[in-house]
Amino acid sequence: MKKNLLKLVLSTSILFSLSSKGQTIAKGMSGMYPESVDFKNSPYPFKSGAVIIADENGKLSTNTSAKLKNADKDDLGMEHYRYQQSYQGISVEHATYILHVKNNAVISENGLKIFHHN
């Protein structure tokens, strides 16, 4: 049991992190987009209303179907935009994503986004 648990932890840590094009990606579970993307080494330009989507290979695209829930600015000057994923105009429960922006560049993002399957 302990051996299997150790194997699972090691394989999970290897599979869930990778670096590509100046970004660090923490993969999501099956059927999910990556849970977080860190752009600190290569900030991504911020565009209001566009959530950045990274696939498992690190290829970036944007999605504009998410609904902005709220935005705030912290004491360090970082802006945080919280988006709700929607599908055909209907909010997807628990599918929210946060973009962390500084100087009009996305520094990181995290949350849960689900692949759309037709």
Topology (SSEs and partners):
Elements: H1 2-16, E1 17-20, E2 23-26, E3 36-38, E4 44-45, E5 51-54, E6 60-63, E7 67-73, E8 79-87, E9 90-102, E10 105-111
Antiparallel strand pairs: 1-2, 2-3, 3-10, 4-10, 5-6, 7-8, 8-9, 9-10
Care to count the β-strands?
Answer: 10
The overall pLDDT average reads: 74
Q: Regions with pLDDT < 50 over 5+ consecutive residues?
A: 2-22
The best one-word shape is globular
Radius of gyration equals 15 Å
N-to-C order of helices and strands? HEEEEEEEEEE
Q: What portion of residues belong to β-strands?
A: over 45%
Largest beta-sheet characterization: 8 strands, antiparallel
Structural class computed from helices and strand pairing = mainly beta
**Count of individual helical segments:** 1
* Oligomer classification: single chain
